[in-house]
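Listing S7. Sequence submitted for prediction.
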Amino acid sequence: MSVLENKESWAKSFREGWLAKLQKTGKFYWKTYIFPENQTPVAGPGLDLKSSRLMLISSAGGYLTDSQKPFDASNPLGDYTIQKFPSSTPFKNLSYAHEHYDHTAVNDDPQVLLPLGYLREMVTENRIGSLTSVVSFMGYQPDISRLLDETIPAILEIARDEHADAALLVPS
């Protein structure tokens, strides 16, 4: 099963439509952007979280303030890189580089986009087996082909390296 049905058709429409208009005019024509859509949902088998390693994946653009480079939040075509940090990271050590959502809620309560305290509590209560590192990316990625070819494989590589059994995606 592919993550996106008709990837080539979507990519062609993206290049010839939205991207071409952006490159020609320097303006965003979101009314012409074609959101990808599958007829069949992507799914996998269920599992028991009590004995699973869970990976938190966030599209909030979080990164370690003192040791990681911020995402290129002002890039009109997005930033397709990822950052990884320990699930034990204190919130005070994190910053967010993302210009496409209101940061008020995450500034008031960082668990809105990174529910690390709740997940650590669930591990302590034996409701989740353990946590892997957190994977973070900037969710503004209009070129779905690049997301599928660059971002997702990088996340999957970390998931394999850290023996993740399940993932929780918290979108921004």
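Caption to Listing S7: primary sequence and predicted structure tokens for the chain studied. The chain is about 30% helix and 15% strand. The radius of gyration is 17 Å.
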